[in-house]
User: Which sequence fits this backbone?
């Protein structure tokens, strides 16, 4: 390995510059996938990568690959990246650090003229968040063969706009078939989005895997009725049913403490008038746990709660499981490269399993993959107050750079032996 150093100020400058694209008054970012703001940040990324001499290719899911050649042009690149889309009240770091930290690592290679054995790529995956189009991690999911391209293209946002149409509209449907190019490995840095690194004063999280997660869409149907004239016993109030499901999801997750989590993040009530008993509710459920067996029991408990609520309140309740992400274990060689990289810089480390979903979780199915976490203040994320310091961000990018170089060195040795 070498003593190449990323530039903390340059990385911070890029984070703050792109945070203005969709910047919110409270200091966060609202840059939903495939909107015009997403187009603007993609244009920014493309321009910067091309200025570094990279070739930027785009696939038919809008995933962007900025490639710098290696001494061997005929082997798959070592890739690093994350996503530039955000939650509606997202912070400045979720996703952006993974792409811009990778760009800074690549810029350091360019600046010093360091030649890698494998080509190096910086990737921006489309719709990691799943905030506009469910499920999350659509482009990396297609890349890994989990979703078909047709499935992805037909996902609709809550206004009925299809993913494929939104992609066309911002001009980022590229010619390459998503998944059409192989990767020698994939590395992603990300803020932890949880409290452990900060609480234990560790610089770097060596991410050994990602917990399992499942998403559901629930529709409750009762009857629209006059709020002033319908006696309570005659009501079929879908929102009352929904409130019981919300409470059940919370209770079920608490029952499986400490690792289980359960969230109802969207609740839409129809017809939405103060004096109409709500006849229809749509809600989403997000259940997560590191073990599939526990997730199975949580799922059964939610179904049982819905089955009890339906007859009691005279509601029809339909639960659709729309996303199943099993637990992921990252690659030992990639993890070893990250440990070596952190040791080289003298950073303190802690192994950690990610509670959040990441593109790396899907890419792990098709390429050796691992992730690097950096601490964030109060463990807060999916919030405009999300914050990691310049030094913390730079530490992540530094470990990323050295991990990629370590992996590249081992790859060169492997090819030399073959
Ligand atoms: C991704 O942001 C997730 O839902 O974990
Ligand atoms: Mn993210
Ligand atoms: Mn996120």
Assistant:
């Amino acid at each position: 390995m070498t003593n190449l150093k990323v530039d903390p100020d340059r990385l911070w400058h890029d984070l703050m510059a792109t945070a203005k694209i969709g910047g919110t008054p409270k200091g966060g970012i609202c840059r939903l996938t495939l909107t015009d703001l997403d187009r603007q940040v993609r244009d920014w990324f493309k321009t910067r990568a091309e200025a570094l001499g990279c070739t930027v290719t785009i696939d038919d899911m809008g995933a962007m690959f900025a490639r710098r050649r290696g001494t061997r042009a005929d082997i798959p690149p070592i890739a690093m990246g994350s996503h530039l889309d955000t939650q509606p009240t997202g912070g400045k770091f979720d996703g952006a650090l993974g792409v811009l930290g990778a760009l800074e690592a690549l810029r350091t290679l360019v600046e010093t003229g360091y030649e890698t054995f494998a080509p190096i790529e910086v990737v921006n995956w489309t719709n990691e968040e799943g905030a506009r189009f469910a499920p999350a991690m659509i482009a990396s999911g297609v890349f890994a063969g989990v979703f078909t391209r047709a499935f992805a293209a037909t996902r609709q946002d809550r206004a009925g706009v299809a993913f494929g149409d939104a992609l066309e509209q911002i001009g980022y449907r590229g010619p390459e078939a998503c998944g059409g190019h192989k990767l020698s490995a994939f590395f992603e840095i990300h803020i932890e989005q949880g409290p452990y690194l900060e609480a234990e004063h560790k610089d770097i999280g060596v991410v050994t895997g990602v917990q399992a997660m499942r998403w559901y869409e629930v529709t409750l149907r009762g009857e629209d009725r006059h709020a002033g004239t319908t006696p309570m016993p005659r009501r079929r109030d879908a929102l009352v049913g929904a409130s019981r499901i919300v409470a059940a999801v919370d209770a079920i997750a608490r029952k499986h403490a400490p690792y289980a989590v359960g969230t109802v993040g969207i609740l839409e009530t129809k017809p939405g008038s103060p004096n109409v008993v709500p006849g229809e509710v749509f809600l989403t459920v997000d259940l997560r746990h590191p073990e599939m067996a526990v997730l199975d029991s949580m799922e059964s408990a939610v179904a049982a709660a819905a089955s009890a609520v339906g007859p009691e309140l005279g509601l029809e309740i339909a639960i659709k499981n729309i996303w199943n992400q099993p637990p992921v274990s990252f690659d030992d060689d990639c993890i070893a490269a990250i440990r070596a990289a952190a040791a080289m810089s003298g950073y303190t480390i802690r192994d950690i399993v990610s509670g959040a979903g990441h593109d790396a979780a899907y890419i792990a199915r098709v390429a050796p993959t691992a992730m690097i976490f950096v601490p964030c203040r109060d463990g807060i994320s999916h919030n405009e107050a999300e914050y990691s310091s310049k030094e913390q961000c730079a530490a992540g990018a530094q470990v990323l750079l050295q991990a990629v170089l370590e992996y590249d060195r081992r790859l060169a040795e492997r090819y030399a032996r073959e």
Notes: DSSP finds twelve helices and 16 strands in the chain.
